Amino acid sequence: MSNEEKITIKINDNGSIRVTGDVELIDGEGNPFQTGSTFSLCRCGQSNKKPFCDGTHKKIQFASAPRASQ
């Protein structure tokens, strides 16, 4: 990865955590998950594809919209 490529992690309102960039995602034992250059992580805790988002947050009406302090 060059110094010019920026990794972004966006906490979507009422939804997932969107990761964009060249990131290695590993489990608690150090094993890598297979990911692309963009993927979404579950934030509601109800996904059947954890740690990845499967859209369940919409069905359960998950509500959270955190904001960064200014």
Account of the 3D structure:
With 70 residues, this protein is mainly beta. The protein has one domain (8-60): Ribosomal Protein L9, domain 1, CATH 3.40.5. The chain is built from one helix and three strands. The chain has one helix at residues 56-59, and strands spanning 8-11, 17-20, 38-41. It has a three-stranded antiparallel β-sheet, with no helix packed on it. It is globular and about 30 Å long. The mean pLDDT is 95. Pfam families: zf-CDGSH (PF09360).
Q: Key terms for this structure?
A:
iron, single chain, Ribosomal Protein L9, domain 1, 2Fe-2S, CDGSH iron-sulfur domain-containing protein, metal-binding, 6% helix, 3-stranded antiparallel beta sheet
Alpha carbon gap, first and last residue: 30 Å
How would you sum up the major sheet? 3 strands, antiparallel
Computed structural class:
mainly beta
Shape: globular
- Mean pLDDT, all residues: 95
CATH topology description: Ribosomal Protein L9, domain 1
* Helix fraction bin: under 10%
Give the CATH architecture. 3-Layer(aba) Sandwich
CATH class: Alpha Beta
Unreliable spans: none
Count of individual domains: 1
GO molecular function, one term: 2 iron, 2 sulfur cluster binding
Pfam family, one: zf-CDGSH
Domain Iron-binding zinc finger CDGSH type: 18-63
InterPro entries: FeS-contain_CDGSH-typ, MitoNEET_CISD
Please summarize what this structure is.
One of its GO terms (cellular component) is cytoplasm. With 70 residues, the chain is mainly beta. It has one helix at residues 56-59; strands at residues 8-11, 17-20, 38-41.
